Amino acid sequence: MSASALWVYLAASPLLGLTLTLLAYLAASRIHQRCGGHPLANPVLLAVATLVGLLWLTDTPYRTYFDGAQFVHFLLGPATVALAIPLHAQLPRLRRMAMPLLLALLIGSLTAALSAVAIGALLGASRATLLSLAPKSVTTPIAMGIAERTGGLPSLTAVLVIITGVLGAILARSIHRALHIDDDAQRGFALGIAAHGIGTARAFQESEQMGAFAALAMGLNGLLTALLLPIVMPFVLGG
Amino acid sequence: MIGAITLLLVFQLVGEVVARGLALPIPGPVIGMALLFVALCWRGGPSTALRTTAQGMLQHLSLLFIPAGTGIMLHFQRMSDELLPLLVSLLVSTVVTIAVTALALRFLARRSDRQARTR
Question: Which ipTM value was assigned to this complex?
Answer without folding.
Answer: 0.89
